[in-house]
Write a structure and sequence with these properties.
By secondary structure, this protein is of the alpha+beta class. The protein has six helices and seven strands; from the N terminus they run ββααββαββαααβ. The longest helix is centred in the N-terminal third of the chain and has 11 residues. The C terminus is likely disordered. Bound molecules: calcium ion (CA).
Length: 258
């Protein structure tokens, strides 16, 4: 685990000025993050918050780590349980079976207004069958565990003697001390031509060219650590398009006095 120093920081999206600067510098021929174009409206207004220092795992929880938890506890994740009719009124009966949502690239370009064009509910998809019942974790021990619901994450954290972060703690950790900048490493997406995190290249969602070395999701230590020593995943800076299978925030932390 690494120590995230406590202190005051500005929580929330980058200012409109920063968004405009990044947009002006971007290649107009390439698609741009819609959140950036909209000015990260779901993360405004930025405001000052203070957190105490705390410990955080360096990486997302991996399949190998999660497997140890399952073997020790025989815990059954939400995706492996039959959904309850009362939780999903109006759902078709054939969808009330254990499963989860998987990313499936459409064959052609599609409108980005309808996410059902690339997300599909797959019966039998769960952490150990990430792409559906015919998939498994062969060769994926060091990939982040996926198809994890909030209560699954809480159960894992409790077993590991840790806890989930608050939103403010998580953002403090993700920023790596870089305040008001677009990415945890600054405002330049590829400083010196270097890929800093797993992101999407190509036209989303139908073409993932993997120019950054990874199509779909990446193993946990594939890209550089942020200034706090955390290995950055796209989810940690909010600019990457979720790739592969349902991404989760499975990076656990505990407070110094826990
Ligand atoms: Ca990629």
């Amino acid at each position: 685990m690494v120590w995230i120093p406590g202190g005051k920081f500005r929580m929330g999206g980058p200012t409109e000025e920063v968004c405009q600067k990044v947009l002006q510098a971007a290649d107009p021929r390439k698609p741009c993050c819609s959140l950036l174009q909209a000015g990260f409206t779901d993360a405004q207004p930025a405001h000052e918050v203070e957190v105490d220092g705390f410990w955080m795992d360096e990486t997302e929880v991996t399949n190998a780590q999660f497997r140890k938890f399952i073997e020790a506890t025989h815990y059954v994740t939400v995706a492996e349980r039959k959904p309850r009719r009362e939780d999903f009124p109006g759902a078709a009966e054939e969808l009330l079976v254990p499963g989860s949502v998987c990313f499936e690239a459409p064959e052609h370009a599609v409108s980005l207004n309808d996410f059902s064009a690339w997300w599909r509910y797959v019966p039998g998809a769960c952490w150990k069958h990430p792409g559906g019942p015919n998939s498994d974790l062969t060769g994926r021990d060091d990939f982040p565990v996926v198809h994890i619901a909030y209560e699954d994450a809480e159960a894992y954290a409790k077993w590991a003697g840790k806890r989930l972060p608050t939103e403010a703690e998580w953002e403090r950790a993700a920023r790596g001390g870089k305040e008001g900048e677009t990415y945890p490493w600054g405002n330049e997406f590829r400083p010196g031509g270097k890929w800093m995190a797993n992101t999407w290249q190509g036209k989303f969602p139908n073409t993932d060219t993997g120019e950054d070395g990874c199509k779909g999701i990446a193993p946990v230590r594939r890209y550089p650590a942020n200034p706090y020593g955390l290995l950055i995943c796209p989810e940690m800076f909010g600019s990457g398009v979720p790739t592969g299978i349902v991404p989760t925030r499975t990076q656990w932390m505990r407070s110094a006095d826990a």
